[in-house]
Amino acid sequence: MRNAPVALVTGANRGIGFEIAKGLVAAGYAVLIGARSAERATEAAALLGEQARGLHLDVTDPESIAASANHIRADFGRLDVLVQNAAIAAAAGRSFANGEALAAAHRPSVVSLAEMREVWDTNVFGVLAVYQAMVPILKDTPGSRIVNVSSGMGSLTLASDKSQPVRQFFDAAYSGSKTALNALTVAMAIELEPFGIKVNAVSPGHTRTRLTGFSGTDTPAQGAEEAIRLALTEADGPTGGFTHALMGTLPW
């Protein structure tokens, strides 16, 4: 495991994150399964075999993030791929019957500031915190990659088009957080371009996961395809992009 390229996937104990980890294991990577629960991270890693290892990583906890970075530096000395997948659609303990109900609760005029902060804390500030902790290791690893798992729901272009069905679901909390994540992706790509580090955002599509209430049209494995492809991109591959496996480049 120590001689293999190393990947860290956040929020990887289930759903799309688990499928991304599974794909990277199949590609020969030593994969760290990041999860808020150490027990669930270990259980998920056991399902993927000896090339996977559970890692307690809560993207909203600075101590957890720092400990994870120290662990990666000490045990592996490298980080070839960082996939930022951890995300939430609503505050802890809140569930909605469908996307319409979620959007209605998160309209700018009614969304709880506390709930919006909680969603953004994971989906935006958590991503930035993990990036800042891991980027020194990524810079020391030739040809490293970052993939941020975004959503087509974060596209301002699509949300501004009255002919697009996603327009009615654009909300301040979840959709807005993915718009901010896209902005972070571009900023990261610009910053890391001189170091040859590729940074891209991907949309998994409408996937059957816990986040969507298992109402999606695609499987988690299908949702993971584009993240896996960009994690494995060659040195001349794209950077600063926003793509979907079947739809190609998405508008910002």
From TrEMBL:
The keyword Oxidoreductase applies. Pfam families: adh_short (PF00106). Transmembrane segments: none annotated. One of its GO terms (molecular function) is oxidoreductase activity. Keywords: NADP, Oxidoreductase. InterPro entries: NAD(P)-bd_dom_sf, Sc_DH/Rdtase_CS, SDR_fam. Coiled coil: none annotated. Belongs to the short-chain dehydrogenases/reductases (SDR) family. PANTHER family: (+)-NEOMENTHOL DEHYDROGENASE, SHORT-CHAIN DEHYDROGENASE_REDUCTASE. This is NAD(P)-dependent dehydrogenase (Short-subunit alcohol dehydrogenase family). It comes from Sphingomonas yantingensis. The lineage of its organism: Bacteria, Pseudomonadati, Pseudomonadota, Alphaproteobacteria, Sphingomonadales.
